[in-house]
Backbone:
């Protein structure tokens, strides 16, 4: 544990109280000058610490930043997010996670960033990742067959949708296969990348990007119409750490259900949030192919079932889905 | 308005109060002896009326029976249940409704019975209709094409499911196409019969049978396992009139939505209650044909979409559905 973590721990244990410098120093068994240096460092990190002449120091305010120490504090998971790699800026959390996974990082390791320079969307698309979002990737080592890895996209979608619904009360929906919407606007994207060797799954990277506190005016004009942020919808700032903690906890629960062969149950939850099912849609597949029809269901592989205009049924495994009604 | 209705109206307007006989008589402009006769008649109908020497009469308790006067009182609909035909015993409410419809009964007319001698289920099956249930049929004259009439079964299913959920808080589900379940047990069946002439829909009879207050021991042994009643689940008697009123009100709302071309929205509600979608099922069709597969969705005609074991997709328009998992 680092010095600043020890000091913060002590402050949180004595929440709301002023503590004399002498008492902090003796309790942590650290010199008073070291404590003062640490307090200065914390203030640089935007922790607000109050000093009162006769009373000592008190932690006034925790900064609204994705600080790993704050995420781990009070995080009620067994393995998801127990190890966190934090970056204020990174090319892509999925790429970092992949590097770490190749080097043996364990199941549940979290890579999280304040901004991404080269955030990745589906099909190699760029994913705008400015300050104000949560950009994170989870390394998973599930013991499943490679063909089941795409199901983790749906599991993650349910975890995000349920967390956002619970934390914000907004009208959260899922657009097949992996966009989370508020009303009609995208607030979160999910990118699952599986790595298999000789038909054995080595690891899966689940990347999640959530538009939390950004002002939509900072978004490129062409993306603004179809996108939103939680702040935009709630008209107030959201505390990042709490959102991430609740997500990681719900994700762990659902991931355990998934591993216990309860994917059909998770799919039931997915259907409840689905905006796609029951809509008339157009799916843009690779090479410019387009399928159009009524989305009538989803099967247990996560394929969308379309009823085309001539009444025939068709399974669609991937693509960009556009709701036409 | 009949005499007993006038007297009841007066009692309900003076709820909880004792009223001298003289005052009742003068207010209703009816002789005191007529009032006394009416009060006796009401007591025969199981209304409990208290008499106090110096104070007069007071309505103590309304019987828990499907009395049309009670259903109409406080019923907040515009046309559903405005006209009610009540029978303590009848062969089949659907058959009576059909007779009435053929003779010009208007849109929204309700036929309701305490017991049916020859209740009808799907495919000509017998439907057990003892005392304790609600057996009713609604005459509808929608201006839709005949092929859309089966959608009314789904509309009715949603109205029943939402009403039961709201009134009882139980775990209400719909089994495709038209059974309402509590957990896994059937509590309500719906039978829609459409009558068209020269490709024009003349009227539709929507029959609804709900197991409300029956003790399941009175059910034939072979039906007991898969069936339940609301009383059985709540472990208390339910007030029939309130249940029917809330159902009629919700039904009218949904029926108006249906007529306003909002069936896709109703189908979304149906999906939320569906226990079938996501289950592995067997559908028994006519002539002993059986289709087996995973129920992956429902289309806007109300056909169930199955994914067979070989991965092919299949639409099923009718049949008896059995959930295998």
Residues:
């Amino acid at each position: 544990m680092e010095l600043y973590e020890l000091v913060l721990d002590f402050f949180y244990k004595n929440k709301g109280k002023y503590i004399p410098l002498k008492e902090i120093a003796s309790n942590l068994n650290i010199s008073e000058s070291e404590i003062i240096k640490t307090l200065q460092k914390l203030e640089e990190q935007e922790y607000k610490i109050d000093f009162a002449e006769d009373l000592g120091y008190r932690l006034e305010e925790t900064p609204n930043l994705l600080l790993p120490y704050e995420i781990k504090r009070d995080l009620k998971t067994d393995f998801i997010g127990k190890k966190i790699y934090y970056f204020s800026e990174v090319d892509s959390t999925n790429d970092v996670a992949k590097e770490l996974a190749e080097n043996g990082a364990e199941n549940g390791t979290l890579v999280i960033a304040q901004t991404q320079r080269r955030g990745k969307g589906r099909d190699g698309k760029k994913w705008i990742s400015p300050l104000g979002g949560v950009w994170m990737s989870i390394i998973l080592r599930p013991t499943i067959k490679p063909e089941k890895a795409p199901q983790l996209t749906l599991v993650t979608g349910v975890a995000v949708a349920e967390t956002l619904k619970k934390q914000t009360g907004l009208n959260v929906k899922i657009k097949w296969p992996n966009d989370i919407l508020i009303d009609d606007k995208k607030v979160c994207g999910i990118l699952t990348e599986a790595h298999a060797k000789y038909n054995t799954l080595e690891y899966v990277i689940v990347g999640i990007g959530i538009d939390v506190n950004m002002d939509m005016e900072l978004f490129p004009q062409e993306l603004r119409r179809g996108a939103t942020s939680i702040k935009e919808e709630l008209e107030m700032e959201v505390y990042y750490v709490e959102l991430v903690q609740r997500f990681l906890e719900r994700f762990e629960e659902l991931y355990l259900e998934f591993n216990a062969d309860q994917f059909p149950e998770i799919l039931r939850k997915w259907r409840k949030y689905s905006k796609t099912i029951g809509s008339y849609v157009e799916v843009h597949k690779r090479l410019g192919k387009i399928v159009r029809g009524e989305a009538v269901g989803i099967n247990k592989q996560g394929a969308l079932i379309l009823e085309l205009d001539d009444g025939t049924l068709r399974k669609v495994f991937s693509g960009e889905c556009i709701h036409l009604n």
